[in-house]
Write a sequence for this structure.
Protein backbone atom coordinates (compact mmCIF):
# COMPACT_ATOMS: atom_id res chain seq x y z
CA UNK A 1 0.00 0.00 0.00
CA UNK A 2 2.83 2.39 0.83
CA UNK A 3 4.52 1.65 -2.51
CA UNK A 4 1.23 2.21 -4.33
CA UNK A 5 0.64 5.58 -2.65
CA UNK A 6 4.21 6.66 -3.34
CA UNK A 7 3.88 5.78 -7.04
CA UNK A 8 0.58 7.66 -7.24
CA UNK A 9 2.26 10.74 -5.79
CA UNK A 10 5.00 10.57 -8.40
CA UNK A 11 2.52 10.03 -11.24
CA UNK A 12 0.18 12.86 -10.21
CA UNK A 13 3.06 15.15 -9.21
CA UNK A 14 1.01 17.07 -6.64
CA UNK A 15 0.74 17.32 -2.87
CA UNK A 16 -2.09 15.39 -1.29
CA UNK A 17 -2.85 15.84 2.41
CA UNK A 18 -4.82 12.58 2.60
CA UNK A 19 -1.99 10.59 1.01
CA UNK A 20 0.54 12.05 3.44
CA UNK A 21 -1.71 11.17 6.38
CA UNK A 22 -2.10 7.59 5.12
CA UNK A 23 1.67 7.22 4.66
CA UNK A 24 2.29 8.42 8.23
CA UNK A 25 -0.27 5.96 9.59
CA UNK A 26 1.39 3.10 7.70
CA UNK A 27 4.77 4.10 9.13
CA UNK A 28 3.31 3.86 12.64
CA UNK A 29 1.97 0.32 12.18
CA UNK A 30 4.00 -2.19 14.16
CA UNK A 31 4.09 -4.75 11.33
CA UNK A 32 5.79 -2.22 9.08
CA UNK A 33 8.68 -1.92 11.55
CA UNK A 34 9.26 -5.66 11.70
CA UNK A 35 12.16 -6.82 9.47
CA UNK A 36 10.94 -8.65 6.37
CA UNK A 37 12.80 -11.85 7.25
CA UNK A 38 10.84 -12.01 10.52
CA UNK A 39 7.54 -11.62 8.67
CA UNK A 40 8.18 -14.02 5.81
CA UNK A 41 10.96 -16.43 6.87
CA UNK A 42 11.13 -19.13 9.54
CA UNK A 43 14.31 -21.08 10.29
CA UNK A 44 14.22 -24.78 11.19
CA UNK A 45 16.61 -27.61 11.93
CA UNK A 46 15.80 -31.32 11.67
CA UNK A 47 16.86 -33.33 14.71
CA UNK A 48 17.77 -36.81 13.44
CA UNK A 49 18.00 -38.22 16.95
CA UNK A 50 14.40 -37.34 17.84
CA UNK A 51 13.09 -37.15 14.24
CA UNK A 52 11.49 -33.75 14.65
CA UNK A 53 11.84 -30.19 13.39
CA UNK A 54 12.85 -27.37 15.72
CA UNK A 55 11.81 -23.83 14.86
CA UNK A 56 14.27 -21.07 15.69
CA UNK A 57 13.59 -18.48 18.35
CA UNK A 58 15.06 -15.28 16.95
CA UNK A 59 15.85 -11.69 17.81
CA UNK A 60 17.43 -8.80 15.93
CA UNK A 61 18.72 -5.34 16.73
CA UNK A 62 17.31 -2.67 14.41
CA UNK A 63 17.68 1.08 13.99
CA UNK A 64 14.19 1.77 12.67
CA UNK A 65 15.70 3.51 9.63
CA UNK A 66 15.46 2.43 6.00
CA UNK A 67 19.09 3.35 5.27
CA UNK A 68 21.33 1.42 7.65
CA UNK A 69 24.64 2.54 6.15
CA UNK A 70 27.12 4.78 7.96
CA UNK A 71 30.51 6.23 6.92
CA UNK A 72 33.55 4.12 7.80
CA UNK A 73 35.09 7.23 9.37
CA UNK A 74 32.54 6.89 12.20
CA UNK A 75 34.74 4.05 13.50
CA UNK A 76 37.83 6.27 13.82
CA UNK A 77 37.13 6.71 17.55
CA UNK A 78 38.07 3.05 17.98
CA UNK A 79 41.68 3.66 16.95
CA UNK A 80 43.71 3.32 13.78
CA UNK A 81 44.14 -0.46 13.58
CA UNK A 82 42.28 -0.81 10.28
CA UNK A 83 38.68 -1.88 9.82
CA UNK A 84 39.17 -5.29 11.44
CA UNK A 85 40.90 -3.79 14.51
CA UNK A 86 38.23 -1.11 14.91
CA UNK A 87 35.51 -3.73 14.62
CA UNK A 88 37.27 -5.77 17.32
CA UNK A 89 37.69 -2.86 19.73
CA UNK A 90 34.10 -1.71 19.29
CA UNK A 91 32.69 -5.10 20.22
CA UNK A 92 35.24 -5.84 22.94
CA UNK A 93 34.12 -2.63 24.65
CA UNK A 94 30.48 -3.68 24.28
CA UNK A 95 31.28 -7.08 25.78
CA UNK A 96 33.15 -5.46 28.69
CA UNK A 97 30.07 -3.37 29.45
CA UNK A 98 27.42 -6.10 29.38
CA UNK A 99 29.25 -9.48 29.48
CA UNK A 100 27.35 -10.72 26.44
CA UNK A 101 27.19 -9.97 22.74
CA UNK A 102 24.74 -10.59 19.93
CA UNK A 103 26.34 -12.20 16.86
CA UNK A 104 27.03 -9.28 14.54
CA UNK A 105 27.90 -8.94 10.86
CA UNK A 106 29.61 -5.84 9.55
CA UNK A 107 29.18 -5.37 5.80
CA UNK A 108 31.57 -2.92 4.15
CA UNK A 109 30.76 -1.34 0.79
CA UNK A 110 33.02 0.06 -1.92
CA UNK A 111 31.85 3.63 -1.19
CA UNK A 112 33.46 3.52 2.28
CA UNK A 113 30.21 2.96 4.13
CA UNK A 114 29.24 0.03 6.35
CA UNK A 115 26.19 -1.67 7.79
CA UNK A 116 25.81 -3.67 11.01
CA UNK A 117 23.44 -6.59 11.40
CA UNK A 118 23.06 -7.96 14.94
CA UNK A 119 20.87 -10.99 15.54
CA UNK A 120 20.30 -14.00 17.78
CA UNK A 121 18.86 -17.42 17.14
CA UNK A 122 18.37 -20.63 19.09
CA UNK A 123 19.70 -22.70 16.14
CA UNK A 124 22.57 -22.34 13.65
CA UNK A 125 20.28 -22.41 10.62
CA UNK A 126 19.79 -18.66 10.95
CA UNK A 127 23.54 -18.02 10.79
CA UNK A 128 23.92 -20.08 7.61
CA UNK A 129 20.94 -18.32 6.02
CA UNK A 130 22.26 -14.87 6.92
CA UNK A 131 25.61 -15.48 5.23
CA UNK A 132 23.97 -16.97 2.13
CA UNK A 133 21.80 -13.85 1.86
CA UNK A 134 24.83 -11.57 2.18
CA UNK A 135 26.74 -13.58 -0.44
CA UNK A 136 23.90 -13.08 -2.93
CA UNK A 137 24.16 -9.29 -2.41
CA UNK A 138 27.94 -8.98 -2.85
CA UNK A 139 28.04 -8.29 -6.60
CA UNK A 140 24.83 -6.24 -6.80
CA UNK A 141 25.59 -4.02 -3.78
CA UNK A 142 29.37 -3.86 -4.37
CA UNK A 143 30.30 -5.33 -0.99
CA UNK A 144 34.07 -5.44 -0.43
CA UNK A 145 34.47 -6.87 3.08
CA UNK A 146 32.41 -8.96 5.51
CA UNK A 147 33.27 -9.16 9.21
CA UNK A 148 31.62 -11.22 11.95
CA UNK A 149 31.82 -11.54 15.73
CA UNK A 150 30.17 -14.19 17.87
CA UNK A 151 30.52 -15.99 21.19
CA UNK A 152 31.62 -19.60 20.90
CA UNK A 153 32.39 -22.57 23.14
CA UNK A 154 35.52 -24.71 23.00
CA UNK A 155 35.38 -28.48 23.55
CA UNK A 156 37.40 -31.66 23.69
CA UNK A 157 36.20 -33.43 20.56
CA UNK A 158 36.05 -36.81 22.30
CA UNK A 159 33.52 -35.37 24.80
CA UNK A 160 30.98 -34.27 22.19
CA UNK A 161 30.90 -37.08 19.64
CA UNK A 162 27.34 -37.79 18.45
CA UNK A 163 25.90 -34.92 20.53
CA UNK A 164 23.75 -32.12 19.12
CA UNK A 165 24.57 -28.46 19.76
CA UNK A 166 22.35 -28.17 22.83
CA UNK A 167 23.81 -31.29 24.43
CA UNK A 168 27.37 -30.11 23.80
CA UNK A 169 27.08 -26.99 25.97
CA UNK A 170 27.48 -28.84 29.27
CA UNK A 171 30.83 -30.19 28.00
CA UNK A 172 32.22 -26.76 27.12
CA UNK A 173 35.75 -26.04 28.37
CA UNK A 174 35.49 -22.26 28.10
CA UNK A 175 33.84 -19.48 26.15
CA UNK A 176 35.57 -17.35 23.54
CA UNK A 177 34.78 -14.22 21.56
CA UNK A 178 35.62 -14.96 17.92
CA UNK A 179 36.20 -12.37 15.19
CA UNK A 180 36.42 -13.19 11.48
CA UNK A 181 36.80 -11.19 8.26
CA UNK A 182 37.13 -11.97 4.57
CA UNK A 183 37.44 -9.33 1.85
CA UNK A 184 37.15 -9.14 -1.93
CA UNK A 185 40.86 -9.98 -2.30
CA UNK A 186 40.30 -13.20 -0.28
CA UNK A 187 42.33 -11.85 2.64
CA UNK A 188 41.18 -13.68 5.77
CA UNK A 189 41.62 -12.48 9.34
CA UNK A 190 40.67 -14.05 12.65
CA UNK A 191 41.17 -13.43 16.37
CA UNK A 192 39.81 -15.27 19.40
CA UNK A 193 39.58 -13.88 22.92
CA UNK A 194 38.99 -15.77 26.16
CA UNK A 195 35.91 -14.05 27.59
CA UNK A 196 37.35 -14.29 31.11
CA UNK A 197 40.32 -12.11 30.07
CA UNK A 198 38.65 -9.39 27.99
CA UNK A 199 38.97 -6.82 30.78
CA UNK A 200 42.76 -7.17 30.64
CA UNK A 201 43.97 -4.57 28.11
CA UNK A 202 47.45 -6.13 27.91
CA UNK A 203 45.83 -9.42 26.94
CA UNK A 204 43.69 -7.67 24.30
CA UNK A 205 46.73 -5.91 22.86
CA UNK A 206 48.69 -9.17 22.68
CA UNK A 207 45.92 -10.85 20.67
CA UNK A 208 45.30 -7.87 18.38
CA UNK A 209 48.96 -7.55 17.44
CA UNK A 210 49.81 -11.21 17.03
CA UNK A 211 51.01 -12.13 13.56
CA UNK A 212 48.31 -14.63 12.71
CA UNK A 213 47.57 -15.67 9.12
CA UNK A 214 44.31 -17.52 8.61
CA UNK A 215 43.74 -19.80 5.60
CA UNK A 216 40.11 -20.67 6.21
CA UNK A 217 36.91 -19.05 7.41
CA UNK A 218 34.32 -20.98 9.46
CA UNK A 219 31.99 -23.17 7.41
CA UNK A 220 29.10 -20.75 7.82
CA UNK A 221 31.14 -18.01 6.06
CA UNK A 222 32.06 -20.19 3.06
CA UNK A 223 29.39 -18.59 0.81
CA UNK A 224 31.08 -15.20 1.28
CA UNK A 225 34.54 -16.52 0.40
CA UNK A 226 33.24 -18.48 -2.60
CA UNK A 227 31.42 -15.46 -4.00
CA UNK A 228 34.46 -13.18 -3.61
CA UNK A 229 36.52 -15.90 -5.32
CA UNK A 230 34.01 -16.15 -8.19
CA UNK A 231 34.11 -12.39 -8.76
CA UNK A 232 37.91 -12.33 -8.68
CA UNK A 233 38.01 -15.09 -11.31
CA UNK A 234 35.40 -13.27 -13.36
CA UNK A 235 37.45 -10.09 -13.25
CA UNK A 236 40.62 -12.00 -14.17
CA UNK A 237 38.91 -13.59 -17.18
CA UNK A 238 37.80 -10.16 -18.44
CA UNK A 239 41.36 -8.82 -18.16
CA UNK A 240 42.76 -11.83 -20.05
CA UNK A 241 40.12 -11.45 -22.75
CA UNK A 242 41.18 -7.88 -23.45
Amino acid sequence: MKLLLSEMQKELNEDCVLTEELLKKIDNFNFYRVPKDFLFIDDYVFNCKYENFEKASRAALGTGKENHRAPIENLDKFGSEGIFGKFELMHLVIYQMQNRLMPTCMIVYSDDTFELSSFESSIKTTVYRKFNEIAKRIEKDDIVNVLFVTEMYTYNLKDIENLDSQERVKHAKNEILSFYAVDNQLSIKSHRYDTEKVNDFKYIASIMHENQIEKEVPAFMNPIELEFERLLNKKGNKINAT
Q: What stands out?
A: The CA atoms of residues 92 and 134 lie 24 Å apart. DSSP finds nine helices and nine strands in the chain. The chain has a mean pLDDT of 86.
